[in-house]
Design goal:
- It is globular and about 65 Å long.
- The protein contains twelve helices and 14 strands.
- It has an eight-stranded mixed sheet with strand order 3-2-6-7-8-9-1-10, with helices on both faces. It has a four-stranded antiparallel sheet with strand order 5-4-12-11, with no helix packed on it. Strands 13-14 form a two-stranded antiparallel ribbon.
- The protein is of the alpha+beta class.
- Helices cover 35% and strands 22% of the residues.
- It binds iron/sulfur cluster (2 copies).
- The site of one iron/sulfur cluster has 12 residues, from α11.
């Protein structure tokens, strides 16, 4: 089912949704678009966001359950999962959700992730204006959403072409106040096609030299010790990646307390260090190589999907200016050229 949402109907539609669901949408926070619970402000439905909405499903820190001991017996209390809708998720992040679904949905399944996933509707926003670091078209994860969305929006100027991808998506159109969505026609679809084709050409022009095969060969020949010396060991590239999913667990409190999970990364030495002090990934160069091997070799073997969706966040955030695809350090001039939009 397709429909057209005029610009002036966007906020009334979000208000409609927020009467029964928690709406999470990107809003402007000090000049940066950040996904938050929507409270009536104009949504920042523009280019990609530095922080991924994947945090709705995989928060940086979360309480898995609370435990209470009484006369030697424990009782457990899991936090309630609200019903939510994420509006504006980019196709690259949507593909990351598909990868996480396979990882956390395979045995042994990850109940806290799946509980959040089942109670979250996804409204994606196709990318008509890719950012300077985006290469989703090369990774086959954008600029338009292929699957996994309930509703896919495309900003065609005067409003949004909305396409339902599930029965819930049809309800998002049909179940809202009348008059918000109008009938879509061929001109709306033609505008969408032109804008998306343009986005593909922009990325092909900029990053057409990137391919998974090329990167796999580069992983075998890269100078990991050199790259390791450049790396500042901040872990930023991993913490910001919508596909990275390593975590640590701690029980806080004895005898009563909370079991807490927080994001972790294989790039930090403590992740692989064992209790006797030995570390199979002792140098940062080895850990960087492991990070790549996991994304481009091990994860595809386990899930059939590559562990990168081309969002470009790791390139954008790296203070050491390591080009994650050429496996080399960018000089300042190359970096500035990269940042020039289009
Ligand atoms: S590896 Fe980099 S470009 Fe790929 S999904 Fe992760 S942050 Fe995005
Ligand atoms: S963001 Fe750059 S400097 Fe930080 S850990 Fe990743 S590669 Fe190293």
């Amino acid at each position: 089912m397709k429909a057209f949402l005029p610009n002036e109907s966007l906020i009334p539609w979000l208000k409609d949704l927020s009467s029964s669901l928690e709406v999470i949408a990107p809003v402007d926070v000090e000049g940066e678009a950040v996904y938050q619970t929507w409270k009536g402000q104009p949504p920042a439905l523009v280019g990609n966001t530095l922080s991924s909405p994947i945090e709705v499903l995989m928060p940086r820190t979360e309480v898995l359950f609370r435990y209470v001991q009484d006369s030697g017996r424990y009782t457990f209390d899991e936090p309630k999962v609200p019903t939510r809708i994420v509006v504006g998720m980019k196709p690259c992040d949507l593909k990351a959700v598909a990868i996480l679904d396979r990882i956390f949905g395979s045995e042994p399944t990850d109940h806290p992730y799946l509980a959040k996933r089942r109670s979250t509707l996804l409204v994606s926003l196709n990318c008509t204006d890719p950012g300077p670091w985006c290469f989703c078209a090369i990774m086959d994860s954008g600029p338009d959403a292929q699957e996994g969305f309930d509703l896919a929006l495309t900003d065609i100027g005067s409003g949004y072409l909305a396409e339902a991808g599930s029965a819930a998506g049809v309800l998002l159109i049909k179940g809202c106040s009348s008059g918000l969505f109008l009938e879509a026609d061929g001109s709306h679809e033609a505008s969408r096609d032109i804008l998306l084709e343009n986005a593909r050409s922009v990325m092909a022009e900029k990053y057409g030299d990137r391919s998974v095969g090329h990167l796999r060969r580069a992983i075998r020949s890269a100078d990991w010790e050199y790259l390791g010396r450049q790396c500042l060991r901040c872990g930023g590239c991993s913490f910001i990646c919508p596909v990275c999913h390593c975590f640590s667990i701690a029980d806080l409190g004895v005898p009563d307390g909370e079991r807490v999970r927080c994001r972790d990364t294989c790039l930090l030495s403590g992740f692989s260090r064992m209790t006797n002090g030995a570390n199979p990934l002792g140098s940062i160069g080895e850990r960087m190589r492991n990070w790549y091997l996991d994304k481009f070799e091990h994860l595809p073997e386990r899930t059939g999907l590559i562990g990168c969706v081309g969002c470009g966040r790791c390139d954008e955030i790296c203070l050491a200016q390591i080009d994650r695809w050429r496996l080399e350090v960018l000089d300042e001039r190359s970096r500035q050229q990269r940042q020039q939009h289009k």
